[in-house]
Design brief:
Layout lengths: L2 E8 L8 E10 L5 E2 L10 E7 L5 E4 L2 E3 L2 E7 L4 E9 L7 E9 L13 E6 L2 E6 L7 E4 L1
Antiparallel strand pairs: 1-2, 2-3, 2-7, 4-5, 4-8, 6-7, 8-9, 10-11, 11-12
Length: 143
Amino acid sequence: MMIDVLLNFEPPFIKVQETVRLLLTPINQEVSNVTLALEEMHTKDVHLIVVSDNLSFFAHEHPQKAGKDYAVDFSFPFGGKFFLYCDVKPLNGSPVVIRRTVDVASDIQEAQRYHQDVLNATVDNVAVQLDVQDLNAIQVTIK
């Protein structure tokens, strides 16, 4: 099965630090772009990872079913190129990750170096801690 994820925006133009609704539509390219039914994977139908091309920004979102689409409101923090990785699993199929690219007009932010030795994030009550004090012994803790 040839799977794709169509990406649309509301409003159709993305502005820095303004909320835009991202609409993701999983389709079967082999059957006239028929919308695909998805299975839950890790408790969600869709995992959307947003990464800036300079690796200064990362977000993990869970778009929600909205008609034939999956929707999430999102705000891009600065201008530049962002990669959107859509992680989906078609019903009775294999998981697939589809990458899309979004260009956000504005001043492009230079790459930012993390100045913390420990990075923390919590998404849907799952806490992740990345300890990078020694790059040869990176520790990841998930709670």
